[in-house]
Design a protein that fits this description.
single chain; 201 residues; alpha+beta; 4 helices
Length: 201
């Protein structure tokens, strides 16, 4: 969760200079980066020129309209963060959700969807209330999902053990504690879905 939040926060920080316009979309450029902010939905898209071509990072609090390989959101789950990264014909989709159901139920939902998509589960971990599964289809498409209760096995709430990967000093610990949304989601199962590949199917 903290890695996901830091990535999205970095993109959002770049977009701050773009806010304040009256159009539904505002653009700003800084060096080789172009930031687009949809002021109606809050979605942020950052396009960056690299040696390997243009890379795009999009972040939002809503899930994409369509997920690759036939994957769907867990029924009744609430999306808390959504991001996608595109470069050289490859895409990575990352979605964070919360649900009233158990980690077991969420994990089995995505296990079934992965198997239907032709993905072979090659990684499986279960510790206390936390579960993680992952695998690939042998054609360059991969999948992972982890679910846990607060303070679970994979350290989502352990701020001391997971460093800020952005190097920009973002720290959302205080914000999480004070926000009404954090209170609303307290005690619920959190899940993170990642789909990566060319999605040729």
């Amino acid at each position: 969760m903290r890695i996901f939040a830091a990535t999205c926060t970095a993109a959002l920080a770049l977009s701050l200079a773009a806010c304040g316009g009256s159009n539904s979309e505002t653009q700003a450029s800084q060096d080789e980066a172009s930031v687009t902010v949809d002021e109606e939905t809050g979605a942020v898209t950052t396009a960056t020129k690299t040696d390997d071509g243009e890379a795009k990072l999009s972040s939002s609090e809503e899930a994409p309209e369509k997920l690759p390989l036939g994957f769907t959101l867990y029924p009744g789950a609430k999306v808390t963060n959504s991001a996608s990264f595109e470069q050289k014909g490859k895409t990575i989709n990352m979605i964070s959700i919360v649900s009233d159901d158990s980690p077991d139920k969420l994990t089995e939902h995505y296990r079934a969807q992965a198997e239907t998509a032709g993905i072979t589960i090659k990684l499986e971990m279960k510790v206390n209330d936390g579960q993680m599964i992952g695998g690939d289809d042998g054609e360059g498409n991969s999948f992972s999902f982890n679910a846990q209760k607060p303070g679970g096995a994979f350290g989502a709430d352990d701020e001391e053990q997971i460093p800020d990967p952005s190097g920009l000093g973002f720290d959302d610990e205080d914000d999480d504690e004070e926000s009404p949304e954090a209170d609303e989601n307290a005690g619920k199962t959190t899940g993170e879905l990642m789909l990566a590949g060319k999605f040729a199917k």
